[in-house]
Design brief:
Length: 231
C-alpha cells in the first residue's frame, strides 16, 4: 500500500484526476470537469487526498449553504435565524482501488475539523450532506449524521450539528481543533490605533552643540561688547 498525503486543496495544474474512478460516473466527471471551475468561481472548494505522485484517490467538495428554518429539525432550528447558516459537504468520493481502507472516513474527519475552524470564524450551525443513495445514507449515519426527516427511510439529506463534531472526531481518534467554545490565547501585538484614545506624547529631541573653543571666545567677546552698548 502506498503512503497517501494529507488532505490538501485541489491544484488543477498538479493533481492527476484523469483516471479517478469511484464507481459513480457523475462524481468522477465533476472532479475532472467542474471542480476547478467551481474553485475559480468561489462556489465550491475541493479537498483531495493524493498519492506522493499526485494521483487523486479521494475528494470532497465544500461550500457555504443555508437551511430553510421552517423545514429544519428542532435541534437545527432552535434559536436560529432563518435561514440557518450551515456548511455543505456537497460531494465525497474515493477511488475504488483505495476503498475500504479508511480514506473516506479520514477525509470526512478532515472536513469536520475544518467545519470547527470555520465555525469559530463565521458561525455555522450544522454540516449538511446529500447522500447519493440509501447505501450512502447508511455510511453517513455510521459517522453520526442524522436524516433531516427520520420518518422518510429513503431520504438522502443528512446533517450533523457543529456542536456534535467534537464527539465524532474523538470517536474517530482524530485531533480536535480549537473551536469557538475554546478561547484563543490573548495576542498582545498592536493591530490598529483606537481613534478614541488620546494622541501619543510627542517626543522632544534635545540637541547639544559643542562649540570649538575659538568660536566660544569670539561669542563671549561679542556678548561683552553688546552689554557695553546697552549700558
Ligand atoms: C462511500 C465511500 C466514500 C466510502 O469511502 P471508503 O474510503 O471506502 O470508506 P472507509 O474505508 O473510510 O469506511 C469503511 C467503513 O465504512 C463501512 N461502510 C462502507 N460502506 C458502507 C455503507 N454503505 N453503509 C454503512 N457502512 C459502510 C465499512 O464497513 C467500513 O466500516 P469499518 O471501518 O467499521 O470496517 C466510497 O465507497 C465511495 O466513494 N463510494 C462511491 C461514491 C459515494 O457513494 N459517495 C458517498 C457520497 S454521498
Amino acid at each position: 500500500m502506498t503512503d497517501l498525503r494529507r488532505p490538501e486543496p485541489l491544484d488543477p495544474s498538479r493533481h492527476d484526476r484523469g483516471g479517478f474512478d469511484s464507481g459513480e460516473l457523475a462524481l468522477d466527471d465533476w472532479l475532472r470537469r467542474y471542480a476547478g471551475q467551481n474553485r475559480r468561481g468561489d462556489t465550491a472548494a475541493t479537498w483531495v487526498i493524493a498519492t506522493p505522485e499526485d494521483r487523486v484517490v479521494a475528494y470532497a467538495s465544500l461550500a457555504m449553504t443555508a437551511i430553510d428554518r421552517s423545514a429544519a429539525p428542532d435541534l437545527v432550528a432552535k434559536r436560529a435565524p432563518d435561514p440557518v447558516p450551515a456548511l455543505l459537504l456537497g460531494r465525497l468520493a474515493v477511488d475504488r482501488r483505495s476503498s475500504g481502507l479508511g480514506v473516506g472516513t479520514a477525509l470526512v474527519a478532515h472536513v469536520l475539523a475544518t467545519a470547527v475552524e470555520l465555525n469559530a470564524k463565521a458561525a455555522c450551525r450544522a454540516i449538511v450532506v446529500d447522500a447519493l443513495h440509501e447505501r450512502a445514507r447508511a455510511w453517513w449515519e455510521r459517522l453520526g449524521f442524522h436524516p433531516f426527516d427520520p420518518d422518510e427511510p429513503t431520504g438522502t439529506e443528512l446533517y450533523l450539528l457543529t456542536s456534535e463534531i467534537e464527539a465524532t472526531l474523538e470517536a474517530l481518534g482524530h485531533e480536535v481543533p480549537r473551536g469557538a467554545a475554546r478561547p484563543t490565547p490573548r495576542d498582545d501585538r498592536p493591530f490598529a490605533r483606537d481613534p478614541a484614545s488620546p494622541p501619543p506624547q510627542r517626543s522632544v529631541r534635545l540637541t547639544v552643540t559643542v562649540r570649538p573653543p575659538a568660536l566660544t571666545a569670539i561669542a563671549r567677546t561679542l556678548r561683552r561688547s553688546d552689554d557695553s552698548r546697552l549700558r
